[in-house]
Design a protein that fits this description.
Distance between the termini: 134 Å
Number of helices: 2
Keywords: Membrane, Transmembrane, Transmembrane helix
Pfam families: BST2 (PF16716)
Largest sheet: none
InterPro entries: BST2 (IPR024886)
Radius of gyration: 40 Å
Structural class: mainly alpha
Shape: rod-shaped
Number of strands: 0
Organism: Chrysochloris asiatica (Cape golden mole)
Protein name: Bone marrow stromal antigen 2
Helix content: over 70%
Length: about 100
Amino acid sequence: MDEELEDRKCISTKLLCRVLIVLLVAMVVLIVFLIFFAVIANSSACKDGLAAQQKCQNTTQLLQHQLTQAQESFRGAEAQAVSCKRTVITTLEDPSPVN
C-alpha cells in the first residue's frame, strides 16, 4: 500500500515538473516574442510609416475641404446661371417695346 502511494506521489511529482517546464518554456517564448515586437514597433521604419500615414491623412482632409469649397462655388455659379437664363428667356418673351 505504501508502495502504491509512493508511486502515485512520484508520478504526480513528475507530472507537475513536466507541466511547470512546459509553462516556463511557453513564458520564455512569449517574452521573446514580446521583446521582438517591441523592437519592431519602435523601429525608425515603423515611426516613418506612421508619420507618412499622418501626413497623408492631413493632405486628404485638406483636399476634402478644398473639394467642398469648390462644390459650393459651383452650386452658386450654377444657380446664378439658371437665374440669368430665366431673365434672358423672360426678356425675349416679353414683347413690350423699349422707349
